[in-house]
Structures are given as C-alpha cells and as structure tokens.
Amino acid sequence: MIPRIQIEDYRYDLPDRRIAKYPLPERDASKLLIYRDGKEYESIFRKLPDWLPSDAVMVFNDTKVVPARLHFQRETGANIEIFCLEPVEPPEYNTAFVTTARCSWKCIIGNSKRWKGDVLHLYNPNADAEIGAMALNAMLLSRDHETGVVEFAWQDRNPFSRVLELCGNIPIPPYLNREPEAIDTERYQTFYAKIRGSVAAPTAGLHFTDRVFKEIREKGIETENVCLHVGAGTFLPVKHSSVTEHPMHREPFVVSLGLLKRLRDSAGKVIAVGTTSVRTLESLYYVGVRCLEKGVPGDVSQWEPYMREYSYSWKESLQAIVSYLENHGLQELAVGTRIIIVPGFRFRAVDLMVTNFHQPESTLILLIAAFVGGDWRTIYDYALSHDFRFLSYGDSSLLFRRDFVK
C-alpha cells in the first residue's frame, strides 16, 4: 500500500547561516555525526573508519559531474540559461559526449518564456578565441513548460564533452546563492569520480580522501562502485502537500556483474555512501524480482516497493540478475530507477549510510526518516544545536539503520 505522507511533517527550520556556502580547506576535516542505537556521537570525518564494522562492503557512486550550465543570447540581447539534463540523440551518455558537430539534450531552460524558438548563440563575454571558433548555437526542438529538447550544433571537431568543458559551468546547487567559482570545479566533485553524466554531485562522497580510503581498506572493508547519474530533481523540495503527488524523475544506473556477485555472497554489512548509492542498491532488489517473474530486468517504478508484499530474499533477487547477465554474456546491469524511499519502506540491502544533512521537505529527508525512523528529527535537532554545517558543502553523518543488528 502506498504510504500516505504529508510533507509538512518533514519540515524543520534551516537558517541560511547554517548552509555551507563553500567547502572547508580539507575534504576530510568536516564534522561527523554518528547515530547508532538511539544515541548521537560527534567526531571528525577523517576518523570515519574507526566507526565502521570491518566485515563490510562499502559502496560508492563514481558518477562525475559535468559542467552542464550553458549561457546563450538571443539577437535581442536576452540571456537564456540552458541546463543539460540527459541526452536525447544520441540517447546514451558516453556516445553523446564523444559526438561531434551536433547532438540534442533534454534541458531546463531559464527565461524559457523569452525564448521564441529562434537560434541562440553562446554568450562569450570575454571573446575567448577557442570558444568563438566553436560557434556553438542552440535550437529549440520541443518545449514542455520549463524544460525542452534542445539541439546543439558547433563547427569544429571537438567532442561534446570538450564543448561543455570550455563553454559550461559546474551546476552548483541554487541554495548556495552564488555563481560558480574556480574552487567548485575541483570540490563539487568526488576525488574518485570517473563516469560523466551527473548534473548534481553525490555530495556524501565529497568528504573522502586517499587517506580515508587507505584506512578503510586497511580495516578489511571492501570498496566497490556503482554509477547512478544524479539528475537535477534529486534535491528539489516536494511541492505537493501529499507525497503521493510528487513525481520522481528517472535516473539511469549501472552495476557490474562482479559487484552483484559480491553482494550476493557477502555475509557482512553493506555501507552505502550517499543517498544515490542507497537508491541504487535498494532498486536492485526490484530489478531482481522482475527477472524472477518476467525473465528480464527493467526500470524500477516510483511506488513499486509499496504495491504488494514480496517474499523473495535479497540473495534470491541478486542471483536472478546474475543469472540473466551470465546467460546473455553481459558484464553489467544498466537500467533506471524512479524509486522513492519514504517511511514504511523495507530496506533489503543497506545497513549503514554515510550522508550529508538535507533540505527540509525533500525526498532525501524522507529517505533519512525511512532509514532511522522517527529519530530523524532528533538527529537534525542535534546537528542544528551543535553547529553542524548543512547541505552539499556541509558536514557529514554516519547513520545505522534503525533495526541494525550487530
């Protein structure tokens, strides 16, 4: 049954002064709040390994943020911001990034009402010669309120990834209330980011350093990667009073056959770094159910976990995916998810979560509430009263699932 949840019950007062506008000089110097067995503890992030169980698999999201914000001008001088969300033609991320001459993307369009469909030219205020030689322009193919499909065309032979590197800006969150700066190019990116495609950072990973990784591995914890490309809607507040009215956007993810086998065979705890890793891992169960019942994997819908009771075990579900991949000679699972995790959700995969402090009335705070139960408010009250910094560049927390078994 779909839970009936009023979003106002997940509101808390977040003063602007508590939002971290810039990262700390050192990634692993942020504060760390640990919540376990109904108690709060306080530490520093570089000591995270001390709090982790050694018989564990730790899963990271190695997606890479792309400089997806582009500024164009009409002949009239009106400025139009175009924020690339996902490729349309060609539809696959890697192919779209290496294409030359033209490609089309689904985009958020700023000042969309001022764009009448005429061809836009890239705004190049510094008259940069290399940027100018590209002659990048944008044409509107279709529009749906503030989003639309935009075709980009340019004259040189650079791949679209290079076009974005030269012409785009890192899409830092709007709640920072500032323009991107040089520091964001490095710090609004995890140091282990590999696969291009996100338009928002998986911010729990921003605290990790080589030093922390080394200590995690020395403790005997296995580290693994998934890749979920984070969409712009991930951090948006829920606009409807009833959560059932909130539409979740699709996010593509990839999980290797090797990790699926490791999760299937592991008797240890699973630690997810960030809500995107949580959503990926928990989505795997329902992908496996689809394999068991329909013979093929597929996307996970928003309310699928709540529609009925599922009797399959976590390992049975994973084995179904493994069997499908092996039978078809595939080395990775590539599907999408719209899953929403709210109170009432049954966790199948994740035992511990590393995550930042999230916006009130957001799907992320609902996920936290599902993970720790009603104690989410206690955790956030503690963080607010003990000078923790909030949101993307803020401090971190290590949360043990409410029914965690040692």
Structure characterization notes:
This protein is an alpha/beta fold. It has two domains: 7-65 and 189-400, QueA-like, CATH 3.40.1780.10; 69-168, no CATH class. Helix content is 24%, strand content 25%. The protein contains ten helices and 17 strands. Strands 2-1-17-16-14-3-12-13-15 form a nine-stranded mixed sheet. A six-stranded antiparallel beta barrel has the order 5-6-7-10-9-8. A hairpin with a 2-residue loop joins β1 and β2 (39-44).
For this entry, give a set of tags:
single chain, about 400 residues, alpha/beta, QueA-like, 9-stranded mixed sheet, 6-stranded antiparallel β-barrel, 17 strands, globular
Structural class: alpha/beta
Work out the helix count. Answer: 10
Our estimate of the beta-strand percent is 15-25%
Look up the CATH topology of the largest domain: QueA-like
Strand order of the largest sheet: 2-1-17-16-14-3-12-13-15
CATH uppermost class of the largest domain: Alpha Beta
Largest sheet: 9 strands, mixed
Shape descriptor: globular
Compute the CA-based radius of gyration. 22 Å
Which bin fits the share of residues in helices? 10-25%
The CATH superfamily of the largest domain turns out to be QueA-like
User: What's the N-to-C terminus distance?
Assistant: 30 Å
Any low-confidence stretches, pLDDT <50, length ≥5? Answer: none
Q: What does the average pLDDT come to?
A: 93
Number of domains: 2
The count of DSSP E runs of length 2 or more, i.e. the number of strands, is 17
The secondary-structure element order is: EEEEEEHEEHEEHHEHEEHEHHEEHHE
CATH architecture name of the largest domain: 3-Layer(aba) Sandwich
